[in-house]
Write a structure and sequence with these properties.
Radius of gyration of chain B: 20 Å
Shape of chain B: elongated
Shape of chain A: globular
Low-confidence stretches of chain B: none
Distance between the termini of chain B: 52 Å
Order of helices and strands of chain A: HHEEHHHHHHHHHHHHHHHHHH
Strand content of chain A: under 5%
Structural class of chain B: mainly alpha
Oligomer: heterodimer
Number of helices of chain A: 20
Helix content of chain A: over 70%
Radius of gyration of chain A: 22 Å
Strand order of the largest sheet of chain A: 1-2
Number of helices of chain B: 4
Order of helices and strands of chain B: HHHH
Helix content of chain B: 55-70%
Structural class of chain A: mainly alpha
Largest interface: A-B, 41 and 47 residues
Largest sheet of chain A: 2 strands, antiparallel
Chain lengths: ~525, ~120
């Protein structure tokens, strides 16, 4: 039951926000729930770390037949991050002026989005994952175009069309998997595909799913929607999207490629590594050529997704190619742990950078670099927050990004993946360049002559600054206390790579099916075995 | 029967894919409609297409009498249809709104970076 709370709480609150009378009620429900969610996530996280993964069989149906909610260490970390991002962005948006026209819809949709993100992280089977993805998409569609500005609509269409394409591919992949082995449970899928004894077929089945997730994660060549859809968003919504949406795609890639489609890790791993290299390089090159803060940051999201995929791909390649078993486990854990540490640091930092863009917009009315300047003098607090986040993103020592990149580069060198490691290092350098461009032009130099004078921050400035400051503090804490963060990430990676144990946890110990009956073919189908 | 359905799925996907690459936004949306139909049909086909009893247990019986049909794919398709219907109607409204506000029905113009 504990594992269901991160889904149920925001879902019920969404209903409440929709139903309660009064113009201010939805905003209050949203704020209260969002600030409460990190506590719920903490509860789940503590439970999972104390007593191992929690598996809930919804409705009392045993695992391969019913719906399984699986909270292992990785899922609990992601739920925690989603809750933190939700709390920070909602706190930030509480400083924005109320708009009775959109507040109710906005509050409801944000809560639904948080519920869907938690659901996607906790889903134990493909179709459940599909449904949570759809809820996530629908609520994000609504939020993306809620204000109805022209560029929001244009970006929204690109986003909606590519997302729907990805959903269709997801559905196709799920249908084909069910057709091939008659199960949708991720853990059971891994077991059944192994029994099928046709590794290439398993990889082919994986491809539509991985492409669908890659579209959601904005991996090159499916990146086009992200820079179209993110920059026009309002600050808080943009930060929420930047922190959460693409990472759900990355999470799904990691989850499926480590537990379900494990027959040919070298093929899938190589494909992921190639995509990772291209995403890192092209994302950062596009970012360097931009001149508006949100556009720069949007392209950096794509570029950073590459690092997460790099860790994943390395882990798969290492699993496939390292002969010695003990070395293999150690190296793969380091690579995947690096990817997870990267996600952990990136979600916090990236959300905060978008919030900083919102703070700058509030003070100066624009985020075009050519119209900015002198922020370091007029707003030292924003400058400090930006510097912490930007240096973390670029990966300078003692900041959070440094440790994540260090682990990844180390894993890349261990695996002998020179090209992708080289790209990762070069990307880090270009990221620094691009962050310094923002720093110099917006913060450091004298204000340009034509620049509008700083505006009064107005009411609601404090919660905005507090939200951003809290995220900066977390980022700083991850950087200075890298050991606990690495311990979390490494533990999560161990869970993911100990596949047999993970599968056994999900499939056995269901409420109704004793362990011995699990392997029986699906009861309803008389035509077994079939393909 | 499977072959016939496989051919229909292929045709749906082919036309859908073609429409998706057109410049007119309305056609792109039609492409999405056809693709989602194709996907639903694909799930339908991936379950076995053999005439069997409906999976409904008689009153008092613990399970339906075998051989009975697998109900899961139909449930999946139903869910997918409902979700697809909702999302597509949202898309249509969005496209209509964008057409009124921006006066474009061209993907190229829509994605151009000129400020609006």
């Amino acid at each position: 039951m504990t594992a269901m709370l991160p889904i149920l709480v925001p879902l019920l609150a969404a209903a409440l926000a929709l139903a309660l009378p009064g113009d201010r009620a939805p905003r209050l429900v949203l704020l209260a729930t969002a600030l409460f969610l990190p506590l719920v996530a903490l509860l789940v996280m503590v439970r999972v770390h104390e007593s191992g993964a929690i598996v809930v069989h919804v409705g009392g149906w045993a695992a391969p037949f019913g719906i399984a909610i699986v909270a292992d260490r990785f899922a609990s970390i992601m739920v925690m991050l989603a809750a933190i991002v939700g709390a920070a962005t909602v706190l930030f948006s509480s400083g924005e002026a109320p708009d009775p026209r959109t507040d109710r819809a906005r509050s409801t949709l944000i809560l639904a989005l948080l519920a869907a993100a938690a659901g996607a992280f906790l889903a134990g089977d493909l179709f459940n994952l599909y449904v949570w993805f759809e809820l996530l998409l629908v609520s994000s569609f609504g939020l993306a175009v809620l204000e109805g500005r022209g560029n929001q609509l244009a970006g929204g269409i690109v986003y909606v069309v590519l997302s729907l394409l990805s959903s269709t591919l997801f559905l196709v992949g799920a249908g084909l998997c069910y057709g091939a082995v008659g199960t949708l449970n991720l853990a059971d899928l891994g077991v059944r595909l192994a029994e099928l004894g046709n590794p290439r077929l398993a990889t082919v089945l994986a491809s539509p799913l991985l492409i669908a997730f890659a579209i959601k994660a904005a991996v090159v060549p499916f990146v086009a929607w992200l820079p179209a859809a993110y920059p026009p968003l309002s600050s808080a919504i943009g930060a929420l999207f930047a922190g959460l949406l693409t990472k759900v795609g990355v999470y799904a890639i990691i989850r499926t490629s480590t537990i379900a489609f494990v027959q040919e890790p070298e093929v899938i791993g190589f494909a992921i590594l190639t995509a990772a290299g291209a995403t890192m390089a092209l994302g950062v090159l596009a970012a360097v050529s931009q001149a508006e803060i949100r556009r720069i940051l949007s392209f950096h999201i794509a570029s950073q997704i590459g690092y997460m995929l790099m860790g994943t791909g390395l882990a798969l390649v290492i699993v496939a190619t390292t002969p010695s078993e003990s070395v293999r486990a150690e190296l793969a854990t380091i690579a995947l742990g690096g990817a997870i540490l990267y996600i952990l640091h990136h979600i916090i930092v990236k959300t905060n950078l978008f919030l900083v863009a919102g703070l700058i917009e509030r003070r100066r009315g624009t985020t075009e670099l050519k119209a900015l300047g002198g922020l370091a003098q007029s707003d030292p607090a924003i400058a400090a927050i930006f510097l912490i986040s930007a240096l973390s993103l670029a990966g300078l020592p003692v900041f959070s990004g440094f440790w994540a990149k260090l682990v990844l580069v180390r894993a890349g060198l261990d695996a002998g993946a020179w090209i992708v490691t080289g790209i990762a290092l070069a990307t880090g350098l270009l990221t620094l360049l691009s962050m310094m461009k923002i720093w110099v032009e917006a913060f450091w130099r004298e204000p340009v002559a034509a620049a509008p004078p700083p505006r009064e921050p107005g009411p609601g400035w404090r919660p905005m600054l507090a939200a951003s400051g809290a995220l900066a503090a977390i980022a700083l804490a991850i950087g200075l206390g890298a050991r606990p963060a690495w311990w979390l990430a490494r533990g999560a990676a161990e869970d993911m790579l100990a596949r047999d144990a993970a599968a056994a946890r999900v499939l056995e110990g269901g409420p109704e099916t004793p362990t011995g009956e699990r392997r029986e073919p699906r009861a309803p189908d008389p035509e077994e075995p079939r393909r | 029967m499977t072959l016939l359905l496989a051919c229909s799925i292929a045709i749906l996907f082919a036309i859908g894919g073609y429409l998706l690459m057109r410049r007119s936004i309305v056609r792109v949306v039609f492409g999405l409609v056809l693709l989602s139909h194709g996907a639903n049909l694909l799930i339908f086909t991936s379950a076995n297409l053999v005439p069997l009893r409906p999976p409904i247990a008689r009153a008092g019986a613990p399970a339906p009498e075998p051989p009975f049909a697998d109900p899961l794919p139909s449930a999946l398709i139903l869910t997918a249809i409902v979700i697809g219907f909702g999302v597509l109607s949202f898309t249509l409204v969005l496209v209509r709104r964008a057409a009124r506000e921006l006066r474009v029905d061209d993907v190229e113009e829509l994605c151009s970076e000129r400020p609006r």
